[in-house]
Amino acid sequence: MSTENEGTAVPPAPSAPPVPVDAPAPAPGAAPEGHAPSAGNPAPTAGGVPAAQLPPAPPGQPGAYPAAEAGWPAPAGPAYMGGDGGAGGVWGASYQQPAPKPKKGRGGLVAAILVAALVAGGVGGGIGYQLAKNENSSGSTTVAAATSGGDVKSSSGSIAAVAAKALPSTVTIEAASNNGQGGTGTGFVFDTQGHIITNNHVVAEAVDGGKLTATFPNGKKYDAEIIGHAQGYDVAVIKLKNAPSDLKPLPLGDSDQMVVGDTTIAIGAPFGLSNTVTTGIISAKNRPVASSDGASGSRPSYMSALQTDASINPGNSGGPLLDARGAVIGINSAIQSTASGGLGGSGGQSGSIGLGFAIPINQAKYVAQELIKTGKPVYAKIGASVSLEDSVGGAKITDRGTGGSASVETGGPADKAGLKPGDVITKLDDRVIDSGPTLIGEIWTHKPGDKVTITYQRDGRTHTVDLALGSRIGDN
C-alpha cells in the first residue's frame, strides 16, 4: 500500500517501534524520545525501567485487547477507539491486539513509542536518561543556547530569521511529581493569557499535585498549572502563573496543506539542551503511530502523524514543528529508535535517526481549545471494537467487546450504519486503513459530528456507508 502523498509503496517500518520523545522509557529495544532527566535526578539503570508495552491481555482473550473507542485503552488495559463509557470501561470502539510489534504494509509505525519527555528518577527515562548521564557527568542537563548571533542580520524568511522570531515564544518545561521524580520537555505560547501547549507525557508527572515550571530563553521562569490533558491525543495545556503581559503566541499554520518535501524547523530541549533549533523536511504525512510512555497501566496515544527528518531527541517533546514561514504545523511527540541494545546497550540507538513524528496542529489546536474551555478532551468515536491484528488487511470488527460486551455499541454510529462483527474496515474517506490503530488515529483527526465514508468488506464483497462520528468526553 502507499501513503496518501506518495505514489509508490512505503518501505517496511523500521525494526523497532517509535518512542515518545518525553516520557518514561520502555523496555530495552525502544528508547523514549522525550524528557531529558532533571539535574539531581539520577538516570535509571537499564534493568530498572518499566517496559513500554500494553498490559497483559484480558483473561480468556489471549494476545488480544479490546479497542479503545476514543483511540486508546481504558484504565484496566482495554483500548478504545471512540465510544462512550459504559460497563467495563468500554468507550465505544474497542480493539484487540497481539503483542506489540512494528507494522509493515502501509508503513504504519504502530507499536510502543518512547515518549519525548524523559522522566528522571526511579520511574525511568530510558535511553535518553542513559545518554544524558554518560555525556554529562556533572548531572546538569539544561544548557541555555545563545539566542542572538551578534550584529549579523538574517534575511527575512531564512531559517535563522524564523528561529529568532520563534524562540522567545518557546519554553523549557520541568515537571516533577510529589516525590521529586520528573524531567524536562518543551512547550510553546498558545495565547496571550498564558496558555502553553505541550505533550501530555511531558507533564504527566505533575498531574497529581506535582510541580511545574516553564522557562523562557531569556531565563525568566514561571510556575505553571495544568489546565487539561488528553492522554489519547498526547496533548496538554498548562497555564503560567503571573504570566507576563508581553506574551507573543506562535502563529498556527495549516498542517493539511503541508506536502512531502516542505521545510520543517523544530525547537526544543534535546537532552536538556534548551533552545535548540534543528531543520529538516516533511518526510511523510498521515503516518499511523501509536505511542506509550511505558508506565504501568498507561494508555497509548494514537496519531496520524507528520513524519520529519529534523533531529528530534528526548527533551524535544511538546515543542513546535514549524514551516518555512515560522508557523506551527505540529507538536513534536515521538521518534523511531533502532532495535537492539535498549538502555545504553551495545546495539541500540537512543537519539535521532531521522525518523520523528509530530501531532498535526489542526488536530492539536482543536484539542487544546476544548481543554481550555472545559478541562476535558473530546474524542470522536464510531462505537465498534476492532482487532489490532495486522494480517487482516484492515480494522476488523471483533466478535465481542470489552469484558464480553457487544462489539458494536447499540445505537452508536457503527450500529446505525449497519456495521457488524466480522466486517473489515479498509478505508475512512480516502485514507487506507490497514489496522485498528490506524483507524483510531484517523478517527481522531476528525471532530465529533463529522460525516465520514467507511469502506468495508463483508463476505468477500466491498461496501461503503456514510456515518456521523459520535463523541465521548474523556477524563484525560
Automatic annotation (TrEMBL):
Biased composition (Low complexity): 30-52
One term of GO molecular function: serine-type endopeptidase activity
Pfam families the UniProt entry points to: PDZ_2, Trypsin_2
Biased composition (Pro residues): 11-29
Residue intervals of the PDZ domain: 382-469
Entry keywords, A to Z: Hydrolase, Membrane, Protease, Transmembrane, Transmembrane helix
Keyword Membrane annotated: yes
An annotated GO BP: proteolysis
Superkingdom assignment: Bacteria
Transmembrane regions: 109-132
Start and end residues of each stretch annotated as Disordered: 1-70
Name of the protein in its database record: Protease
